[in-house]
Write a structure and sequence with these properties.
The protein is of the alpha/beta class. It is built from 17 helices and 14 strands. The chain has 2 domains: 132 residues, 3-Layer(aba) Sandwich (Rossmann fold); 243 residues, pyruvate-formate lyase- activating enzyme, CATH 3.80.30.20.
Length: 452
């Protein structure tokens, strides 16, 4: 029986990988395992839990993001030196196939599930090609289940994906280039059957937007939530969605009844100019003044709000960071993912930085390890890098220091009106604080500004 080893590499266990509440299983590898012919013996090695040790294999498949691609290359080299064929896929390989081809026998660009059986057949016949282009999957057919039995049992969340693609084209995001701008959805019954088969009560919907982008997708979300209620699945779960989802309170109410704990929303910034440059049209239409109202709508139904904000945009300042900190403390948002603007391969942001010769770290692939949303890797206009790092420290110190953190958690307790939802919110905050304290700039830069 031939052996396939699938690997989820982790170059540096930092940031959100440090807590069980903020780390997720390599679902893509479980999907690949599901479409591998049955006569193959399959093992998934997951460095979120166990550091890689060489395991003999006939064929190796590795997935990677940009931040851990160098670890993927190192592991690939271990196998290739022993004569084992290595295939690398995932979003970085899809956005930088020429680079990846230097470190792998085969590169898979795009969604791999439909092309994988052909790849296996080519390998078995000794004619593995150097590059495969995976077609976008028609999710409306359903019936594709990941091999969860091969995933590490230590994950708090069981990841479920119900859709792919994003019609938005945000300046800093590569999802629409990777998965397409057409929003593809699995049938509701197919998703419900998968949820019913999962023993864990804790679910992470990893769709970029579970509720979707229009009336049809919103109707589908409602049908999904009603199905979860009617089947009495008793799952506790969270989702990503956009700010405009709160315009229809009926979908939020159903989400709460179906077990929604919290939502992840990309608010990104409180500066209108930055929102325009980011191409965050939905946020611009709603207006920054709607952020607090959005949080209140979710709280009305006991759902927490994890808000994403980005620092390091052009022309920010110490005064802007002070204003942002004040806003966040008053916003009612329960937890904050605050990251530094990072140009990733496949984004228009990266294209523009390369065209302007504006990258600070451009010794690739070595410098990819800094592309993890905690480094200023390009020169922003109208602000120096040190101010961004100080601003990040200043804002997070305000969020997590006494008495502000305790006030925020007390407010969340009364807003959520649900002990379990509140407990998860506390754990989220603890994970985010731990990530910050482990950052490279936490000790190096001040946590306050010496300006008025």
């Amino acid at each position: 029986m031939p052996k396939l080893v699938l690997i989820n590499p982790v170059g540096k266990k930092s940031g959100y990988l440090m807590s069980s509440i903020s780390r997720f299983a390599p679902l893509g590898l479980a999907y690949i395992a599901a479409v591998t012919p049955g006569h193959w013996d399959i093992e998934i090695i997951d460095e979120n839990f166990d550091t890689f040790e060489y395991t003999a294999a006939d064929l190796v498949g590795i997935t990677a993001f940009t931040s851990n691609i160098n670890r993927a290359y190192d592991i690939a080299d271990t196998y290739r030196r022993k004569g084992t064929k290595v295939i690398i896929g995932g979003i970085h390989a899809s956005m930088a196939p020429d680079e990846t081809a230097k470190f792998a026998d085969t590169v898979v660009v795009g969604e791999a599930e439909n092309i994988w059986p052909q790849i296996i057949a080519d390998f078995e016949q000794g004619r593995l090609a150097p590059l495969y282009q995976g077609p976008r999957i028609d999710l409306s057919q359903g019936n594709l289940r990941p091999r969860r039995d091969l995933l590490h049992p230590g994950y708090f969340w069981q990841s479920v994906q119900t859709s792919r693609g994003c019609p938005f084209d945000c300046y800093f995001c590569s999802v629409s280039r990777y998965l397409g701008r057409r929003y593809r959805q699995r049938p509701v019954e197919d998703v419900l059957e998968e949820l019913e088969s999962i023993e864990s009560p804790n679910i992470a919907f990893v769709d970029d937007n579970l509720i979707g982008y229009g009336d049809d997708s919103r109707a589908r979300a409602k049908a999904l939530f009603r199905g979860m209620i009617d089947r009495k699945l008793n799952k506790k779960w969270w989702m990503q969605t956009s700010i405009n989802a709160a315009e229809d309170e009926s979908v939020i109410r159903l989400a709460a009844e179906a077990g929604c704990l919290f939502v992840f929303i990309g608010f990104e910034t409180i500066d209108q100019g930055s929102l325009k440059k980011m191409k965050k049209g939905v946020n611009l239409r709603a207006g920054v003044e709607s952020y607090q109202a959005t949080a209140r709508i979710y709280h009305r139904y006991g759902i927490g709000v994890l808000g994403a904000f980005i620092l390091g945009n052009d022309h920010e300042s110490a005064n802007y960071y002070k204003r942002l900190a004040d806003f966040l403390l008053k916003s009612g948002i329960d937890a904050f993912q605050i990251s530094i603007l990072t140009p990733l391969p496949g984004t228009r942001l990266m294209d523009d930085q390369i065209a302007a010769s504006n990258l600070i770290y451009d010794n690739f692939p070595d410098d990819w390890e800094k592309y993890r949303f905690s480094y200023m890797v390009h020169y922003p206009q109208g602000i120096d890098r040190e101010t961004v790092y100080i601003g990040d420290n200043y804002i997070k110190n305000r969020l997590y220091a006494f008495p502000f953190f305790h006030y925020r958690m007390l407010r969340s307790f009364f807003q959520l009106k649900n002990p379990y939802n509140f407990m998860v919110t506390v754990k989220l905050n603890q994970a985010l604080k731990r990530s910050w304290k482990n950052s490279h700039y936490y000790q190096k830069y001040p946590k306050r500004f010496d300006v008025n």
